[in-house]
Amino acid sequence: MSLNWFELVAECRETRARAGVLHTPHGSILTPVFMPVGTQATVKGLTQRDLAGDLGVTILLANTYHLYLRPGPELIRQMGGLHRFMSWPNAILTDSGGFQVFSLSGLRKITEQGVVFQSHLNGDRHTFTPESTVEVQMAYGSDILMALDECPEFPVSHEYARDAMQRTLRWARRATNYYNDRIQPGDTGLGTRQALFPIVQGSTFMDLRRECARALVDLDAPGYAIGGLSVGEPRPLSMQMVEATEELLPRDKPRYAMGVGTPAELPEYVARGIDMMDCVLPSRNARNGCLFTSTGRLIIKHARYKDDDRPIDEGCECYTCRSYSRAYLRHLFLAGEMLYAVLATRHNLQRYLDIMREIRQAIISDKFPGYLRSVRSTCADPE
Is the pTM of this model over 0.85? Predict the structure, then answer.
């Protein structure tokens, strides 16, 4: 990966917000960026044409754990990699699978070597190691790979969090060494076009977060992620952990906050120096009847929308808002029609992507502090 694969374009003078460009083999990505989650090599309810064409998505996230179990990395490799397998022309980030494995609780066992776990599909036993998860993601041909980390639940003791953080550091070094050994000069494989990000852990303890960040910087990685931010902790505490970590990370490398956030939280994380985010909220909430608008949440099943001929959001230019009324969407939702999930997901993702475009433009035009104050003062949630 080229040393200048990430470039800063503008920085806010009052906050830590930055605008940049992330160059990948599958296109350049304007940051800050929100990455839709395509867990099973698909964003539920949308086609790749919807994502890349109408919505303008330039990077999405796929899940190493789920794709490892089904259909498996070897099949994906044989099919030409994940991009070709799912017919996706733009960049892909794959997580390490660590979050999913550690959420299995009683179905997994942590050792220094890695994690032994049982498949949630059929109970078969598998092992993830720092090396094997890099190998799996290289088989996928992801543009950005994540190092295996231990993601403790919330709350945990300082002692447990310290042990998990130190293990994460050792695993990150092993993953980096394995990755570097696999990249040979003149290599014609996928590896030379991929970037490996380590993950900062430390639960909600500022001293552990800072210790982890300092140690990971020594790896001179092309980018850094901050994990364990969406495991049940209060949101203000999550942002404090980002603040404690971000200032120690290299200015010229992208920072990725994993698993965040709500529409109102997106500019808050950007204000704290975050360049990349992902979250299942826009698609999951859409399917469950919760729609995001410029004035707050809209719960489509409510009776007040039975004969409401307005779009979800009168200021939104998405296909759903241009074409369909709240009344029709409510009818589809109550009838259990799959078209509802398609239309609702398109709108919610459009809302997230519009917010990110607004944030980037505000940074570039030197108006981000005012934009942030506006968001904070109008964070309505009428439902």
Answer: yes
Burial class (CB in 10 A: 0-12, 13-18, 19+), 184: exposed
Catalytic residues: 95, 278
Strand partners, 3: none
Query: Do the Cβ atoms of 255 and 246 come closer than 8 Å?
Result: yes
Tell which CATH classification among 3.20.20.105, 3.40.50.970, 3.40.710.10, 1.10.3720.10 matches the domain 33-183+190-279: 3.20.20.105
Q: Is 166 exposed, middle or buried (0-12, 13-18, 19+ CB in 10 A)?
A: middle
Count how many Cα atoms sit within 13 Å of the Cα of residue 240 in the half-sphere of its side chain: 12
Q: Which residues contact 15 (CB under 8 A, 6 or more apart)?
A: 271, 272, 368, 369, 372
H/E element, 227: none
Could you tell me if 248 and 214 are in contact, meaning their C-beta atoms sit under 8 angstroms apart?
A: yes
| Residue entry with tokens 């076009």 | 193
CA distances (Å), origin 66, targets 190, 276, 282, 293: 21, 22, 20, 31
Domain definitions of the chain by residue range: 33-183+190-279, 286-377
- Tens-of-pLDDT digits for all 383 residues of the chain? 444 689 999 999 999 999 999 999 999 999 999 999 999 999 999 999 999 999 999 999 999 999 999 999 999 999 999 999 999 999 999 998 878 877 777 778 899 999 998 988 999 999 999 999 999 999 999 999 999 999 998 999 999 999 999 999 999 999 999 999 997 544 434 445 689 999 999 999 999 999 999 999 999 999 999 999 988 899 999 999 999 999 999 999 999 999 999 999 999 999 999 999 999 999 999 999 999 999 999 999 999 999 999 999 999 999 999 999 999 999 999 999 999 999 999 999 999 999 999 999 999 999 999 999 999 998 755 56
